Structure formats: structure tokens, C-alpha cells
Amino acid sequence: MLTEKHITIREAIPQEGSLIAEHFYQMWRDIGIPDEAIDPNWLDITLQFTERAHKDLFYKAFVAEVNNAVVGSASCQLFTGLYPDVLKAQYRKFGYIWGVYVEPSHRRQGIAKHLTNSAIAHLKAIGCTRVVLNASPSGKPVYSSLGFSQSNAMHLDLM
Fold first, then answer.
1. In a domain, 156, yes or no
2. pTM for the complete prediction?
3. Domain count of the chain?
4. How far apart are CA 157 and CA 138, in angstroms?
5. What CATH number is given to the structural domain containing 107?
6. Are 94 and 131 in contact (CB under 8 A)?
7. Could you read off the pLDDT of 95-148 as tens digits, one per residue?
């Protein structure tokens, strides 16, 4: 028997910070990062980070609900960069999307795409000129379908 699911995307409320942190943790586990590689204080680290990002970086999180249960989340904020940003904001004000996560039983239903679109809308509303994210292998098709392109970012593993 098929039942239609009602999916709602909304801005997260402050009381959902721990749930968003849990999704961020689970995202790392799902892409193969072993538990011993994750700091045992991951919850406090994530909550402290998002608190600072709220104050300084226009941080916002979105959650996806199916039948009134949260099944996914995504976070976004201004990208502060890895070096001094000497360009004027109208030329280079980047937003960053991170922690896009959907519970396994709700994947492949367009939820990640809806969460990402909500994050994009927020970043556009605060004047961002580009959105940047790091995609997992399973996330690449989602982001490509939204118009994201591969960048010239490169990396070298030293371990």
C-alpha cells in the first residue's frame, strides 16, 4: 500500500541544535569516517561553532519533516575563507552549505535537494554571489542537478 508523504522544509529552531549536530556527526559516519577519528566532544564542538556562526556569519539551518518527524537537515553560512578576503563583497561574497543529511530511510525522495534549495535561498537573500559546498560521492548528483559545477579545488592527502 502506498501512502503519500507530506514533506515540509522549514527553518530550524534553536532547540533543534543537538539534532542538527547529530545529523552532522552521522553524515561523517555515513561517508566512512570511523568513530575513533571523530572527537568525542563532537556535540559541544558543533553547538559552539553554530552559536558563533549565528552571531557572526548569518548561519541558518533548515530541517525536513515527514509526517511531523525531522528526517534531515542542512546548514549554511557566510564563507569566511581560508585566506584574507581582499575583494569587495559585490564581487566575492561566498556562502557555504554544509552538513546536508537525510536519514537513510528517506533518501532518494528529493529531500536533500529541497534542503539545499532552502539554504541557497537564504544565502542569496543575504547577498552572496556564489555558493560553495563539499559534496560526498552520493551528494554530487544532487548538487549537479541544482546547477553546481566542479571547481578547481584540489587536495593532497598527507596521511
1. no
2. 0.90
3. 1
4. 21
5. 3.40.630.30
6. yes
7. 999 999 999 999 999 999 999 999 999 999 999 999 999 998 889 999 999 999
